[in-house]
Amino acid sequence: MLLDLVQIFIISVICIVFESKAPTPEIKVPIIWILGGPGSGKGTQCEKIVAKYGFTHLSSGDLLRNEVASGSPRGKELTAIMERGELVPMEVVLDLLREAILNNLPNSKGFLIDGYPREKEQGIMFEQKISPVNLVLFFDASEKTLVERLLGRAKTSGRVDDNEETIKKRLHTFNTHNDQVVQQYTEKLKRINAERSTDEIFGEVQTYLDPLVA
Length: 214
What we know:
Elements: H1 2-21, E1 31-36, H2 42-53, E2 56-59, H3 60-70, H4 73-83, H5 90-104, E3 111-114, H6 120-129, E4 135-140, H7 143-157, H8 164-184, E5 189-193, H9 198-213
Parallel strand pairs: 1-3, 1-4, 2-3, 4-5
Helix pairs in contact: 2-9, 3-4, 7-8
């Protein structure tokens, strides 16, 4: 009886390892990375894209928070990592994105990967292990504009990180890493002026998305 249980356990572990290493099936719908500093309005544009095109909006930050809240073994490990003040391993974020894409693949017309990649290496690994990206939309606004927007949001958000000093640090970190991503994907990148009205910005977004879904 004990031997049987041990055999079942070993088989289960092998299956889990095999599944985790199984190649990702070919993804035939568009994958779009959505980049932009905090306050650039990329969340609003994602909502409009989802409404018109039926894409699935995935945020790496939301996926991490949901995994932690689930209380799963992986969520508990993520909690421990963050409590130690360590960075979540790139592979874990990639696994969460891969699982979310595959779970939504049967019913999705495309995927918006919001706020990812944050670094060049993340983008390279995504394309190697999940799928090549079709388009990179970068919602570009000046630091002055982003600071003003975030300070305006701070009046009602209650977020502790919405103060000018912290905002400028966040923007510096974003710009440092985002420049590397932008340089890596010049052929797929569309830089969008995010200092216009929501409708003007979405009008330009549609000119890039329409050919992908035609």
